[in-house]
Amino acid sequence: MKPMAYLSVGLVMLALAGFNSQGRNGKEPVPSSGQMAVESGMRANDAIAPLVASSEPALPLPLRVALQAGHWKAAEAPDELSGLRYNGGTSAGGKQEWEVNLKISELTASLLEKAGYEVEILPATVPQRYEADVFVAIHADGNNDSSISGYRVGAPRRDATGRAGEFAEMLAQTYGEATGIRRLPVATRRMRGYYAFRYNRYRHAIHPMTVGVIIETGFLTSDVDRKVIVGDPARSAQGIFEGITRFLGPPIMEASESD
Length: 259
Ligand SMILES: [Zn+2]
Fold this sequence. Notes:
Blueprint: H1 3-17, H2 34-44, H3 49-52, E1 64-69, E2 91-92, E3 95-96, H4 97-114, E4 118-122, E5 134-141, E6 152-154, H5 164-179, H6 189-192, E7 211-219, H7 223-229, H8 233-248
Parallel strand pairs: 1-4, 1-5, 5-7
Antiparallel strand pairs: 2-3, 6-7
Helix pairs in contact: 1-2, 4-8, 5-8
């Protein structure tokens, strides 16, 4: 299909989905009206905004950031991702990977909320066709060789937004500046094919128009990296926060001027 045809179909599916599956861990009520769905669609992709902005003026809504704490609640994965249930990630220094990922996610969320963004922390299972302005999967690496150190950031191999690569690069820069951890420049195949990006294969994945990236924050098995990601996770959070805000800009999107 041509890109615009594809986008239109995506928008219709978005509206049909109604976002009822978009849980927020019970923290706040979830608007699930069609209008909300349309507005979310507009924010997710400026290119289609003119198609849907004519009836009512858009409300200025905060940009939405999703932080996924890798492996968190992995045992609750749905059948289509049952392999996740047995993938607890790495562990070292008395820490399971999910604990480290969750702590960094929470600290990052608090920085973003203070700055005015709307934030949701997600477990290993992503709600179906999950919609946000950006999605960041947070993980830590592991290796039998404790001298191996470094962080990496990856964008999806299949990226309908066309913007994930740019976001990944910004995040890689700010993360390195904030943490001093060595950058490993190449994202692995597994990162680029991360399950939560594979909307063409799994229902529990991000929406094609959600800009997604994955960060391996450092090696939990490295004494050097662990000093930051476990010993001083606020630095990791600061680096992720800066990458997200640099990419998104101010937290409140301007109201549409189209009518
Ligand atoms: Zn992991």
